[in-house]
Specification:
Length: 96
């Protein structure tokens, strides 16, 4: 999962959690059975969305666990002379 996608999922998770807190603060509008059922179904829907986002994020974290960064100078696939750490021109520019 790309960082942009992960941030979007994290933002959506935050939105669903804020909605849940707002719903819990408000509570059902009355004690009628119909209102209690509607409140419960909305709460269940929000909890399902939260679980969905958390499972997506945890699956992505498990998938990426143990992988190395792939843009380090020794992993970018360039010959040693082309890497910034080995290239004297690049080194001179960085130190200037």
């Amino acid at each position: 999962m790309k960082a942009v996608e992960r941030r979007q999922h994290e933002q959506l998770l935050g939105v669903w959690k804020r909605m849940l807190h707002a719903l819990l603060d408000i509570g059902p509008t009355s004690d009628s059975q119909e209102d209690l059922e509607a409140y419960g179904s909305v709460k269940d829907y929000i909890l399902d969305r939260i679980d969905e986002r958390e499972s997506i994020l945890s699956a992505a974290a498990r998938k990426c666990r143990g992988k190395r960064a792939f843009l380090g100078p020794h992993l970018n696939g360039l010959p040693p002379g082309e890497n910034a750490v080995d290239n004297t021109t690049s080194r001179g520019v960085e130190n200037a």
